[in-house]
């Protein structure tokens, strides 16, 4: 076996390994961290506690709402209710429809 064929085989092997590395399933770089749970309720990651059973989201209103719409899809049995929507003030309430849950709702 000549040195040239060894180098060629190694190059092919390296190309296959690198190619498989790109195809290997992994978490996307921009993937969302799973929610933190407080009394079985999902809380926005990195939210700060501001009182008993109260948290402040690090995101703005629209991004927080989008986050909860994505997270509460599927197996979560919740209903969305608009509390107020006047100029400068917006709020929605997410009600937990499971009676066995340890949380009633999110604002």
Notable characteristics:
107 residues; alpha+beta; 3-stranded antiparallel beta sheet; two-stranded antiparallel sheet; 2 helices; 30% strand; elongated
Write the layout of secondary structure elements.
Layout lengths: L2 H21 L12 E3 L2 E3 L4 E4 L2 E3 L4 H11 L6 E9 L2 E8 L8 E2 L1
Antiparallel strand pairs: 1-2, 3-4, 5-6, 6-7
Keywords: Membrane, Transmembrane, Transmembrane helix
Characterization of this structure:
The strands form three sheets. A three-stranded antiparallel beta sheet has the order 5-6-7, with no helix packed on it. Strands 1-2 form a two-stranded antiparallel sheet. A two-stranded antiparallel ribbon has the order 3-4. Strand 5 and strand 6 form a beta hairpin. It contains two helices and seven strands. It has one domain. The protein is elongated and about 75 Å long. With 107 residues, it is an alpha+beta fold. The chain starts with a helix and ends with a strand. The model has no long low-confidence stretch (mean pLDDT 78).
Strands of the biggest beta sheet: in what spatial order?
5-6-7
Please tell me the total number of domains: 1
Estimate the mean pLDDT confidence.
Answer: 78
Order of helices and strands: HEEEEHEEE
Uncertain segments of ≥5 residues (pLDDT<50)?
none
Report the helical percentage: 25-40%
Strand-pairing-aware structural class: alpha+beta
Largest sheet: 3 strands, antiparallel
Number of helices: 2
Give the beta-strand count. Answer: 7
Shape: elongated
Percent of residues in beta strands? 25-35%
Radius of gyration, in Å, reads 24 Å
Oligomer: single chain
How far from one another are the termini?
72 Å
